[in-house]
Amino acid sequence: xxxxxxxxxxxxxxxxxxxxxxxxxxxxxxxxxxxxxxxxxxxxxxxxxxxxxxxxxxxxxxxxxxxxxxxxxxxxxxxxxxxxxxxxxxxxxxxxxxxxxxxxxxxxxxxxxxxxxxxxxxxxxxxxxxxxxxxxxxxxxxxxxxxxxxxxxxxxxxxxxxxxxxxxxxxxxxxxxxxxxxxxxxxxxxxxxxxxxxxxxxxxxxxxxxxxxxxxxxxxxxxxxxxxxxxxxxxxxxxxxxxxxxxxxxxxxxxxxxxxxxxxxxxxxxxxxxxxxxxxxxxxxxxxxxxxxxxxxxxxxxxxxxxxxxxxxxxxxxxxxxxxxxxxxxxxxxxxxxxxxxxxxxxxxxxxxxxxxxxxxxxxxxxxxxxxxxxxxxxxxxxxxxxxxxxxxxxxxxxxxxxxxxxxxxxxxxxxxxxxxxxxxxxxxxxxxxxxxxxxxxxxxxxxxxxxxxxxxxxxxxxxxxxxx
Length: 469
Prior knowledge:
By secondary structure, the protein is an all-alpha fold. It contains 21 helices and no strands. Helices cover 72% and strands 0% of the residues.
C-alpha cells in the first residue's frame, strides 16, 4: 500500500486516526500495531511472518544482552543477534544475486549450475533489519534499555509510516515515545502540513518528471543520443530527490499525527558544496547509521589516512549493496567512495576556490551521473548510456524529443530544480505578519492537496522507487 494512493488517503489513514483518537491512551499502541501489521500484510501477507520473526529475534537478544552478567556473554549475544538479522537479509535479498553469479561462472567453467527457484524480496526488509540491528547494538552500548514488552518492540519495528521505506529510526530516539507521548493540535497540524508537502512532492513533481527517465532508460542502445541521455540524467536526479524526500516528509508527517517525532532525513542536498557535504544532507538516517554502527567501530578517521580511505570505501560499498543486489549497485557504491576519496585527497581545496553556485552544480551533476547506475540494472546498457552522453550525431534529436515532452514536463522540471533549494522557505520567511502568514500557508497546503488528488485521479503512473529496498 502506497501513501500516494486513494485507498491509503481515503480509507486506511482516516480509519487509523479515527480508532487511534477514540480509544483510551493505554490502547493507542495496540491500535497502531494492529493497523501497522494490516498495512504491511495488505500487499505482503505471505512475508508478514518474516518481519514478525525478525521482531522476535531482536526482542530475545535484546533481553539476553541486558541480562548478561559478563561482557563476554553480552558480546556473544550481540554477535548472534546481529548475525541472525544479517542472515535473514542476506538470504532474502542477496541469494538470487549470489546464485545467478555462481551459475554464470559455472556455465563458463563447465560446472553444473545450481537449480534455484527465485526468492521474492520482502518489502522494506533492508529498513526493518537495520532497525533491529540498531536496537540490539544500542542495548549493548547501554544507549537504550531492552524493551520488556514484545508488543512495543513490534510497534517500533512495524510502525507503518517508516516501515516500507524509512527513514531509519533508531530505537533510542523513540524509546520514551513508545511509552508516553504528548499529542496536541499544533503537532497534529504540523504533521498534516508535512504530509501534504511530501504528497505533493511525490505526485506533482516526482511522478511527472519521472516519465522521461522511465522512457529514456529503456530506450534501445542504437537510439540513445546526448540530447535524450542528458535529459534522462537531469530528470532522474530530480525524480529521485522528490520521490524519496517526499516519502520521508509523508512518514515524518504521519508520525507527528500520532504524537511521534522523527528526525529529518533530507536537508536540501543539491545545495551542497561537495559530495562529502552531500552525504550529510541526503538520506541522513542511512548515512548516520553507517557512520555510527560501521564506520566509527572500524576506526573511522582515527587510525591514519590510509585506513580512513579504506573505511570510506567500505562504507560506500556497503551503501551501494544495501540499495540493491546487482553489480550496478556495487559500482554505484565504489563511484561514491571514489568521489569522497578524491575530494579528501585534495580536490576539496580546488572546490573551495570555485563560486558556490558552481560547486552546487558539480554536486548535482556527479550525483546525477551516478544515478544511471542506480536506475539501469544491466551493466552493458549502463555503459552504452554513458557513451551516449557524448553522442551528438543524431540530427533530428530535438524534433524527436519534442514528440514526447510537453510544456507541463518542462515546467515541472524547472519547478523541481528551483524547489530543490530552500526557495519556498526563503519566500515565506519574508512574510512578517504572523496571522497573514498562517492564512497563506493554510491556503497553500489546501491547494497542494487538491492539485495532488486531481493529478492522482488523472494518471495511473504512480511508482515509488525506494520500495524495492
